[in-house]
Amino acid sequence: MFDREGEQIEFKKSTAELKEAVISLCAMLNKSGRGSVYFGVKNDGTVVGQQVGKTSTTDIANEIKNHIKPNIYPNIVVLKENNLDYISVEVHGTERPYSAYGKYYTRVDDQDQAIDNNELRKLFQTNEFTNLTWEKELTKYGEDEVDEQLLINYVRKAYDLGKFPHLFNSVKESLIRLDLMENNRLNNAGYYLFSKNKPITVKLGKFLTDERITLIDNIRFEGNIFECINRSIEYILKNINQVYVYEDLRRVPRPEIPVKAIREIVVNSFVHMRITSGDYNEISIFPSEVRIYNPGHFPLNTIPANFAEGKISSKPMNPLIATTLYRNNLVENFGTGFQTVFSLCDKNNIKYSYDISNFGFTFSFYRKKTDNDFLSVHENSKDIEFENKNILKNMNLTSLEENILNYCDKNEKISSLTELADEFNMAWITMQRAVSKLVKKNILKRVGSNKIGYWVRIDK
């Protein structure tokens, strides 16, 4: 026998009331951050029993997983009283507001009530809309968890950019100064940014047609936030077309979608994602579209155009992560990302769209059709194009490596990786890896010391 129902407890006679139970769990999460539902118990608390089959608990778990957003992970237990089976379902969550079946609810005593727009707006406009509290929660991990070289590179670039006033001295000191460590433990933001043990996953896929049916490439990439951002951008650039133009008689490949626009949306997807939701960021490449999805809420009654027009200030879901990326130039200026993307798309005649739902945010770039005109170059440069194509083909270079070599030829040298990263609007570590590969291929060489040296082409 139980006590009466209340703000954190609900009784259901059987799983025939499963949908109502899921709504109750959602309401309790929004009101108290926790709640319990018991199947096989009458409203007065009397245990009457629940038939438990092989899939009973699985069916409950799947219903909760599929219909409460952000995702939560219930604790489901089959209990027994007076030889009667009944099922206990407990949930805990800190990522309010939660929705069930696309709607928001709260708990008033023992009743579930739909949240009206005014109340929902208050939820979104308070600090509860952000994950700042979650970001600062301490993990069990210490400095041994950190990718030290990544942190060194990060601090060096942030210092060079004038966005972090301290040089690297130690892992612990740098993380404390970045507000990513306390009491010798990484907080959640520090863990997901700098962990060397692949804490998050991004799904990368390429489809044969514009329908999500036939996958011709399917990758689940695991890494920290920096690694996932870099891999996502690289994957898109690898799988879209290039427009070739000539600058100073040199063949320069340009992606059909501006790199800066791609970078802004990809970075934005990680700044605003709900990392603990159990869902993943996704990059989907179709013949006519590049689709970028993240599991995160968008502020109520707002659209990206509001931010682009400067009507609303920036509201990143993960402000500490956003600040860390800002210091490294992955986030340039808060609140200007959509304005930059829209401007670049309009300038390059690229259509785009976005979709805001209870499940997350999706941004789509629409691709141009590939035809002869799309890949054409100036007629008087055909001989140079043919020669360069064969040389580059023999070198087996990526488009990024081609870009770096063209930049080096144009400027006669590469003075610093920071300079290169700013030129191509990509991460410092991505430039470091690309230049290192060109050195290994005996195409570039380092001249001078580590402090004041530079890279040049090796004469062939």
Automatic annotation (TrEMBL):
Q: What protein does this entry describe?
A: Putative DNA recombinase RecG
Identify the InterPro entries for this entry.
RecG_C_sf, Schlafen_AlbA_2_dom, Schlafen_AlbA_2_dom_sf, WH-like_DNA-bd_sf, WH_DNA-bd_sf
The protein's gene is named recG
One matching Pfam family: SLFN_AlbA_2
Schlafen AlbA-2 domain residues? 5-115
